[in-house]
Design a protein that fits this description.
Elements (H helix, E strand, L loop, with lengths): L2 H22 L5 H6 L6 H12 L2 H14 L4 H25 L4 H8 L3 H33 L4 H51 L4 H4 L10 H12 L11 H15 L3 H4 L8 H19 L2 H15 L3 E2 L5 H7 L4 E3 L7 E2 L47 E3 L4 H8 L4 H39 L5 H24 L5 H25 L5 H24 L16 H19 L5 H10 L7
């Protein structure tokens, strides 16, 4: 059976499973729609949390980033893993003990203000839409290659599926669907890694094989460094980024994780506070399986690609090059007209490549060697250097089984895993948007007298509208998957983390400090990202060498610097609010 045949079979089977689960666990009340009736077991919630948190950025893009960035890519491993530990130990149990449905709910009651609730709603929606853009982009990438459809159509298909089980099932349906999605994505990620580890080193455990040697007794990392040096690339095992930027990116990812509303809301779905702690531990275990495998996947992918592509005539290039070129995620421009692929350090184009098509038939135009021709002007023109090959970082995990010659069913399984990762997180984010609109905006601010059935209807309508908006962001994404997700983490770090942290651990912290701090933090971070990513700002002008992916750490400091003095200079919270904060921090007071 062909790769496409296997893909239709495996992806079709998993999609059917998700739909059946959504139908069987359909939400029939607002409690089930928002927090699954608070009846999820710790192990199931741990798996659902892992699937919710390990998005397309973790499954599709992270290993690709590490493959191209080497040690510099380790910031994603450190930031996301450390952030989850911080969330699980520092915030999750207290938020669960607070007992509300959403993060804006916590903000509104803790800061005794509808204004605080409204600001939190705006921040939650803004962060979630930024994050979801990366997930829908990941869905489009998978569909465009493995089902051989346009990325736009792939995003639309993904929208339809998420719409069905998010709108029908609510958090209850999403939770049990995410359990299934975790099983799919973790098998899809680890099975190719076992194959490659055994094939290259004779040891099937990827984490151990990474430090092993090949059949000739040469260390994998040493061999990769040598190959990269021969081709003009930087060393794989050394840091090349600004040290301050590394710290800031790691901090933004870590603290952003602790402030992400779609992860926090998962801890409201368990029965008791101790179950929140237990499910956090299970989730960390489930997450570690993928995160400790990612560096090995990255090394295998980069090594295999460099072994098959550079200095090879295009007409003799492996089949996967042409296959992925047809998706628009690989591009080759023959600078010296010798027909040979030159792959070295540096960008080929100033922007992402844009291909030429026949204006009448829409068919791609091809050059003398059979490669797709490019619109160089629309691609931003050629950059200085010798590199001729553009490879989108988001394809490395998905293409790795093909590059390595693994069986077609393994390739199809990876496609199913990538879709599971993207769809699980997208569904969780849609729930944040839906609950923020229906519960926090409509129920708590606009129409407090609304009945439960009406609120549930509003929640489903909000989810449906959010799906459409998310699809549009997936069709026209602002950047590659992991970068878009990194922006969302920075926004969460600069807005929610200080307000949640101080709200739990400082009973004197008040509404003016929280509101003004959130607005200043997210405002500064948003301005910096927009200016340097979309409005012409140059990397040479980054403040202190800090990239847009890391500026959330500075935005968080801005938040703290503004919020604490304002809180000290304004009236303390009411006595009942301070008593509530004390109560939240005392173990065992309430269940």
């Amino acid at each position: 059976m062909t790769v496409q045949g296997w893909t239709f079979l495996i992806v079709g089977a998993t999609f059917t499973l998700y739909i059946v689960i959504a139908l069987l666990s359909r939400a029939r009340s607002t409690g089930e729609f928002y927090v699954a009736g608070k009846g999820v077991s710790p192990i199931a919630n741990g798996m659902a949390t892992a699937a919710d948190w390990m998005s397309a950025a973790s499954f599709i893009s992270m290993a690709g980033l590490i493959a191209f960035m080497g040690m510099d890519g380790s910031v994603f491993l450190m930031g996301w893993t450390g952030g989850y530990v911080l969330l699980a130990l520092l915030l999750a149990p207290y938020l669960r003990k607070f007992g509300k449905f959403t993060v804006p709910d916590f903000m509104g009651d803790r800061y005794y203000s509808q204004l605080a609730r409204l600001v939190a709603v705006i921040c939650a929606i803004f962060i979630s839409f930024t994050y979801i853009a990366g997930q829908m982009r990941g869905v489009g990438v998978v569909f465009s290659r493995f089902l051989e459809v346009d990325i736009t159509l792939g995003v639309v298909i993904g929208m339809g599926l998420v719409f069905f089980y998010a709108v029908i099932g609510g958090m209850k349906g999403i939770t049990y669907t995410q359990v299934a999605q975790y099983c799919v994505l973790i098998f899809a990620y680890t099975i190719p890694a076992f194959f490659l580890a055994f094939y290259v080193t004779g040891n099937p455990i990827p984490q151990i094989a990474l430090g092993g040697t090949d059949a000739e007794g040469v260390g994998l990392l040493a061999k990769l460094n040598g190959t990269l040096a021969d081709l003009g690339f930087k060393s794989y095992t050394d840091y090349h980024k600004n040290t301050l930027d590394i710290v800031c990116i790691t901090g933004a990812l870590m603290l952003g994780t602790a402030g992400l509303p779609h992860v926090i809301i998962r801890f409201f779905t368990v029965k008791r506070v101790k179950d929140a702690r237990s499910s956090a531990g299970w989730a960390l275990l489930f997450i570690a399986i993928l995160y400790t495998t990612a560096p090995a996947i990255a090394v295998f992918a980069r090594s295999n690609m460099l072994a098959t592509v550079p200095d090879v005539p295009y007409v003799e290039a492996p089949e996967w090059v042409g296959t992925w070129e047809d998706t628009g995620l690989i591009a080759w421009h023959d600078r010296n007209d010798d027909g040979v692929i030159q792959h070295t350090d540096g960008k080929v184009f100033a922007k992402k490549p844009v291909f030429l098509s026949d204006p009448e038939t829409g068919e791609p135009l091809r050059g003398a060697h059979g490669h797709r021709l490019l619109d160089l002007e629309a691609s931003g023109g050629l950059k200085d250097g010798k590199n001729e090959l553009y490879v989108d970082r988001d394809i490395m995990v998905l293409a790795n089984p093909e590059i390595s010659g693994l069986p077609p069913w393994v390739i199809a399984l990876v496609a199913a895993g990538g879709l599971a990762a993207a769809l699980s997180t997208a569904a969780g984010l849609l729930m944040v948007i839906s609950s923020a609109v229906s519960h926090d905006l409509v129920k708590r601010i606009i129409a407090p007298e609304i009945k439960e059935k009406q609120e549930l209807r509003v929640a489903r309508i909000a989810a449906a509208v959010a799906v459409v908006c998310a699809g549009l962001l997936g069709i026209w994404p602002p950047d590659y998957v992991a970068a878009v997700v990194a922006f969302a983490f920075g926004l969460a770090a600069s807005s929610f983390f200080p307000a949640i942290f101080l709200g739990i651990f400082w009973k004197r912290f008040n509404m003016p400090g929280a509101v003004i701090g959130m607005l200043c933090g997210i405002g500064f971070t948003t301005w910096y990202i927009l200016y340097f990513k979309f409005f012409g700002g140059l990397p040479a002008d980054w403040w202190w060498g800090i990239s847009p992916e890391g500026i959330g750490s500075i935005g968080m400091l801005v938040n703290f610097a503004v919020a604490i003095p304002i809180a000290l200079l304004t009236k303390a919270p009411p006595a009942e609010v301070q008593a509530m904060v004390e109560d939240i921090r005392i173990p065992g007071r309430i269940d």
